[in-house]
Amino acid sequence: MFNVNSSFYKFLMALQAKLHTEFDLKALSANACMMHADGMPSIVYYLCSAKERIPVDSATRCIHIDEDRWIAQPDLLLNRIAALAGLAQRVHARSTVVARIDKHMAMVFQQNHHLQVALPGKYRYGLFREGELVSIAVFSGGRKMDDKPADYRSFELLRFCHKQGIHVVGGFSKLIDAFLQEFDPGDIMTYADKDWTDGSSYRKTGFVIVGETAPQAFWVDTSTMTRYYEPELPDEIKGIPAEERKKRGYVPVYNSGSIKLIKTYKHNPVV
Q1: Burial of 258 by CB count in 10 Å (0-12 exposed, 13-18 middle, 19+ buried)?
Q2: S-S: 259 plus which of 36, 154, 192, 202, CB 3.0-4.6 Å?
Q3: Which domain of life is it from (predicted)?
Q4: Per-residue pLDDT reduced to its tens digit, 7-31
Q5: Domain ranges for the chain
Q6: CB 132: neighbour CB atoms within 10 A?
Q7: Best CA proximity match to 216, nearest among 201, 203, 231, 235
């Protein structure tokens, strides 16, 4: 039986209001509950005490939501689910203008519209509609590859996101094309968060799955619902064993890991 608490109840009520539908509930454990509605992605909600992901047999896209993320970023989380359910305002890329943006603009946009930690990257591009920034892509610098020609460079797409409540149709391709024209990369690599996607949206644009990363561990301070990577923990917590951390109100949380994808633009010459 799932341990329904106030945060889950608020999430369920807010989600149903946002998507204008009712979800059927299925307890997966005492700490995880699956929600399903016709025509919508399936959603699994985890209490902080859940610790690890539960394998889910779902015929639809499955989204994994942690209690601490809901408490910390409720509007952003609901808007992203709504976008995946097809309820975001659709803007066509042809009505936008692409331009390089500075680090400050990219960081602020990510903080307002992306669920993950904002990254400055080295190269940043944005799509503007009537002067308003509606989508961005952030790239790393180029890396030489030992098994590739001397002029071959591999870049990483670090972040891509739309403004909350907006989906720019063709926006991803337009941002990538702008980067291609300026840097002529050998390939572009990126990671897709398995909590939210199976990588299909990337594969539709020519990216190929080349591997996966293991689930990543975080520590959540249950008194504030603040999430920490291991290196970012407060000093008084970082230096103590896991069991002692739990006694002080910190619990480990694991995501689903990531999918690694690459799109190659230059191939090794045939000898």
Answers
A1: buried
A2: 192
A3: Bacteria
A4: 999 999 999 999 999 999 999 999 9
A5: 6-84, 89-207, 217-254
A6: 12
A7: 231
